[in-house]
Amino acid sequence: MADQQRLEDFLEQKEYCFDALLVEFRWLEELEDVMQDSTWHREGNVLEHTRRVCRAVVSGEDWKDLNREERAVLYMAAMFHDIGKKSCTMRSAEEEGRIISPGHSIAGMKRFRELCYKELEERFLIPFAVREEIAWLIRYHGLPLLFMEKESPAVSLVRARESVRLKLLWLLGRADVLGRECSDKTAALETVEYFRAYAGETGCYDERIHFANEYTRFCYFEKQTIWPEECLYDTTKFDVYVMAGLPLAGKDTYIQENFPHLPVISLDDIREEMGVRPSEPSGPVAAVARERAKGFLRTQTPFVWNATNLVLDNRQKICRLCSNYGARVNIRYLEVPYREVLRRNTVRERSVPVDVINRMIRRLDMVERTEGFRVSFQQNDGRRIK
To answer: Taking all residues of the chain, what is their mean pLDDT, rounded to a whole number?
Structure first.
């Protein structure tokens, strides 16, 4: 594209001016019509709150100590941190008509990822790792204020650190509080500061936690009662490879090149065997796949599970099934640029309707580093992208 420009250069050119950037990131304009509860946000609508958060980000003492990439990541996360409120804001039936936005951080993460994947990352040369850190910052932006309400605060912080730098999350959480007008602002800022101190005590503020071995790491996130330094005896016996990615991301080619001798359970092949069209319910197809998987699992035979696996709940079911048989679940997420997906679709024998692809992108639950025994993010030629 002729107008390509690195994100850091573009933001600096606009001098990190919110109103100048609002013209470029037009999706944020819709937040002006989204109201907030006056108890927590007397400043008004979501757009006004976002403007104040961005102002707090660049006016903080820590801003000058960030490098160019950190500034770009933090500012983009601040700009888009509440974009999910557009679809999630409602009047509470239980709380006397209070305005609430349940799940807005998850919706916002998905919305940003969709916008970035389809439009922004090509224009601004945004790498996968940068896009994903911004997306996960949006997902976790409420954690600095709410972490003590979690069942296990330490595990919540360690999990978040697998996807984002906690310094950036702390700065975002602090700006989020500074960007609102409410009666408990002082107490909220104290909580956010405690988040930073607690993360330091836990050992995950500056870097990811070191685990005694891979099995300990897996059990830590599965059971949440394991000490990271406890060297657990690895009871896993064989590997299972679970593919994930949009149609046309190159999963079949990747399997042929990396696992040519392993049996493959392909949901597309099973669907074709059963004469089930893509538009029809996939429950019967998944049931057949599970039964075939159990056959390999009973004999401890390594195999590949080949499907899009874009929904977290589906991946968790597969991981639990395989782990119960003593398998090491290796998740391989593959991605190619949106434009390439569309190009491949035009030459594919079994093309996928573009609206179906777009719906998949909209619903995508990105693989998290803590989901399997091992998780990797790769281009379809095998190169790691994170």
So the answer is: 93
d(CA 253, CA 344): 13
| Residue with tokens 């911004």, as numbered in its chain | 134
The alpha-carbon radius of gyration of the chain (Å, integer) is: 22
Estimate to the nearest angstrom the gap between the alpha carbon of 61 and the chain centroid: 29
CB 83, CB 108: distance < 8 Å: yes
Cβ contacts of residue 366 below 8 Å, gap of 6+?
A: 113, 132, 135, 333
Cα–Cα nearest to 237, from 287, 296, 186 = 296
pTM: 0.94
CA atoms 1, 24, 132, 347: torsion sign: negative
Rounded to the nearest 10 degrees, how much is the dihedral formed by the CA atoms of 148, 143, 163, 307? Answer: 100
Q: Which two tokens stand for residue 102?
A: 């349940």
DSSP assigned state of 259:
-
Q: Please, are residues 315 and 244 in contact by the beta-carbon 8 Å criterion?
A: yes
Which pairs count as long-range contacts for 61-65, CB under 8 Å and 24+ apart, including other chains?
62/171
| Position 370 confidence tier, pLDDT thresholds 50, 70, 90 | very high
Query: What CA–CA distances, in Å, run from 229 to 175, 212, 217, 263, 270?
Result: 34, 5, 9, 36, 43
Q: Is 28 exposed, middle or buried (0-12, 13-18, 19+ CB in 10 A)?
A: buried
What whole-number distance in Å separates Cα of residue 379 and Cα of residue 245? 10
Nearest to 368 by CA among 317, 310, 318: 310
pLDDT digits (tens, 9 = 90+) for 45-98: 999 999 999 999 999 999 999 999 999 999 999 999 999 999 998 888 777 778
DSSP 357-371: HHHHHHH--PPPTTS
Spatial CA neighbour of 113 closest among 378, 310, 318? 310
